[in-house]
Amino acid sequence: MRERRPAQERRRAREFESFVAGAGGRLLSAAALLTGEPAARPAPAAEELLLRALSRTYAAWDRLGGDDPYERTRRELAARFARTARRHRRPRGGPLARLSPRERLVLVLRLYEDVPEELAAAQLGLPAARVHDLCLHAVAELRSRRRPEPPPAPAPSPKSSAP
Amino acid sequence: MSLPGLPVPLSPDSPDRPGLPDRKQDEVRRMLAGPYPRVPPDLAARAAERGRRLLARRTLLRRLGWLLALCALVALFVLVTHRPWLPPPTHTTPPVEGW
């Protein structure tokens, strides 16, 4: 048993490395959306968040038992972000920087990762209705930020614009 | 509209009710789906190293727990066999009375 351990560790390291090579980009992108960092520049807070989530996935690798490592890492990421949300309140210039950390978390889980509403609610420990409201609010907020004023059509005649 | 055997989805963004929220959400989805940031090349190695340390710490804690349990068991055994709460055996003969 003791001689088999290095072999098992090597196999785990190999599998883990190929998992990160495949899913790292998407996971880091989700993490950067959460921390509110822009994707174009290095995102140290997102990297730190992902590093911690990935290390926990690695530690649980042999006990995943058919669980998807991507889902596992996303769950760790969401849980860790929810615990440390205060640190990410300051806007950092990313596309979601104006939203509150909780709105970002709900938006990323629901729209970026397509997690079903009930599952997201269970993971966050919130009622599903609250998740729904947060998501709607975040969507409205983002759209209003993006297009502050719908460009008014050039009205040639004042008569047609009157109610 | 829905099949008789299937539960009717309730959320407004379900495919059964393609409506305004759906379109708005798709717009935000496109907004989120930007280019991926560059992943540091040593991310997997660093995470694996950290994960190994986590495992080692957990193993150590588990062993300490077992050690503690063993110590408690030994202490209990000693207490039960020696019974230190009983008075020590007397070495002097008690005074004889009543004859």
TrEMBL record, chain A:
InterPro entries: RNA_pol_sigma70_r4 (IPR007630), RNA_pol_sigma_r3/r4-like (IPR013324), WH-like_DNA-bd_sf (IPR036388). The keyword Transcription applies. Keywords: DNA-directed RNA polymerase, Transcription. Residues 142-163 are annotated as: Disordered. It comes from the Bacteria. Pfam families: Sigma70_r4. Residues 96-143 form the RNA polymerase sigma-70 region domain. One of its GO terms (cellular component) is DNA-directed RNA polymerase complex. This is DNA-directed RNA polymerase sigma-70 factor. The lineage of its organism: Bacteria, Bacillati, Actinomycetota, Actinomycetes, Kitasatosporales.
TrEMBL record, chain B:
The chain crosses the membrane at residues 60-80. Residues 1-12 have a biased composition (Pro residues). Residues 1-23 are annotated as: Disordered. Residues 14-23 have a biased composition (Basic and acidic residues). Keywords: Membrane, Transmembrane, Transmembrane helix. This is Uncharacterized protein.
